[in-house]
Amino acid sequence: MKKWFRYAKPYVPYFILGPLCMLIEVAGEAVMPRLLGILINRANEGLLTSGMSLGIMALMIVIALVMMAGGVGGAYFASKASVNYAADLRADVYSRIQTFSFENIDKFSTGSLVTRLTNDVTQMQNLINMMMRMALRAPGMMIASLIMAIILKPKLSVVFAVSIPVMLLSVGFIILRGFPLFSKVQTKLDALNSTVQENVTNVRVVKSFVREDHETEKFRRANRELKNTGMSAAKVMIFMQPVMTLIMNVTVVVVVLIGSRLVLNRDGGMLPGDLTSFISYVTQILMSLVMVTFMLTFSSRAMASARRIREVLDEPVTLNDDGAAFKDLHVQRGDVEFRNVTFRYYKPDAANPRLYP
Predict the structure, then answer these.
(1) 69 with 77: CB under 8 angstroms?
(2) Cβ contacts of residue 297 below 8 Å, gap of 6+?
(3) How many other C-beta atoms can be found within 10 angstroms of the C-beta atom of residue 166?
(4) How far apart (Å, rounded) are the C-alpha atoms in residues 337 and 339?
(5) How many CB atoms lie within 10 A of CB 84?
(6) Cα–Cα distance for residue pair 149/273, rounded to 1 Å
(7) 67, 146, 210, 245: least CB-packed within 10 angstroms?
(8) Would the CA dihedral through 286, 287, 293, 296 be positive or negative?
(9) Host domain of residue 54
(10) How far is residue 255's CA from residue 282's CA, in Å, rounded to a whole number?
(11) How many domains does the chain have?
């Protein structure tokens, strides 16, 4: 955790101000449905005057503008923090690669290192951006809306005891099935980048030996494997949005059925405006859970990328000048003398490379 935190340390103000701006938006989202409910109740009871109507609407407009400012500020600081974080991380990964020996580079392959520098770092950047915009907003909106809904009608709030656990269990099952596939997608992307890099770098050699057809088939195979693996991951994740929407709509329907009976029953103690507010809070609660599911989805993919980046940063360099006797010597003459020089090939697949004769 320390390794990742040190990239955030220089930008702590952004990491603080972003979520705080989002909390301003959350506060507005909790108040707006209640004001709308009061407006409807007063109109239904015939107690709504023009002055009261204009006052409530003016207050709603002011709250909406404050919410907009909070949302824009949160998005701005989240972007600043995530972009700077990714830039510093990418610079460190690049610097680390520069110290690698040929053996280290062969272990990862050039294409894999390119993927880790670009796609994997971008996944980390997207995760930070999303976490800053939703990490406090989603639970904050859920808690605030849940409190307001319970205050409005405690008995009707029992519906959440069923819908929320069902949604969480569904999301957990989908993510557990999809997480292993994200690592496979990145691995297949490594293979595709390696194929492209090798072909483009050695295009003159390929043309000299008339191997265009062979290289084209090699690329098609890598591209097909990436497509198939990506489709497998997509098939699992596409169920998330329909499942979330189904649970949300069923919950809203149940609330409308029960709430409408309470409104029609004079002794039910629920006014039309209260029902409207309650439905809005139901939508906000379930939408906050949808935000959490998207965060978990992005987190699972970003964690796979973080693991791959850490492998590069933690890779011990097999060849360096740290223990060399000539490290601190200054060149006095330009002569070169070889003593006890040997040469060997490394076997890429062997844990302990051996010397070929």
Answers:
(1) no
(2) 175, 178, 237, 240
(3) 14
(4) 7
(5) 17
(6) 13
(7) 210
(8) negative
(9) 7-189+234-313
(10) 8
(11) 1
Q: What pLDDT is stored for residue 101 in this prediction?
A: 81
- The share of the chain scoring above pLDDT 70, in percent, equals 91
* Residue in this structure with the two tokens 């989202």, named with its chain if needed: 29
- Euclidean distance between CA atoms 272 and 266, whole angstroms: 11
Predicted pLDDT at 253: 87
Helices (H), the chain: 2-8, 12-45, 50-98, 102-108, 110-115, 121-134, 137-152, 160-201, 203-208, 212-237, 240-264, 272-314
Provide the pLDDT for residue 65.
93
Query: Distance between CA atoms of 159 and 244, rounded to whole angstroms?
Result: 16
Residue 82 lies in a domain: yes
Q: Are the beta carbons of 101 and 51 closer than 8 angstroms?
A: no
Cα 158 to the center of its chain, rounded Å: 32
Q: Is the pLDDT of residue 53 over 80?
A: yes
Residue 232 makes CB contacts below 8 A (sequence gap 6+) with 181, 184
Amino acid at 309: I
d(CA 263, CA 271): 6
- Residue 78 CB neighbours (<10 A): 25
Global pTM reads 0.70
Question: Is 227 a member of any domain?
Answer: no
285 close to 142: Cβ distance less than 8 angstroms:
yes
Q: Is residue 177 part of a domain?
A: yes
Structure tokens at 222: 């890598």
**What CATH number is attached to the domain comprising 242?**
1.20.1560.10
Q: What is the rounded CA–CA span in Å between residue 187 and residue 225?
A: 10
DSSP result, 66-103: HHHHHHHHHHHHHHHHHHHHHHHHHHHHHHHHHT--HH
Is position 126 within any domain?
yes
- Residue owning tokens 């796979």: 304
**240 neighbors 297 (Cβ within 8 angstroms):** yes
Q: Which two tokens stand for residue 290?
A: 């949808």
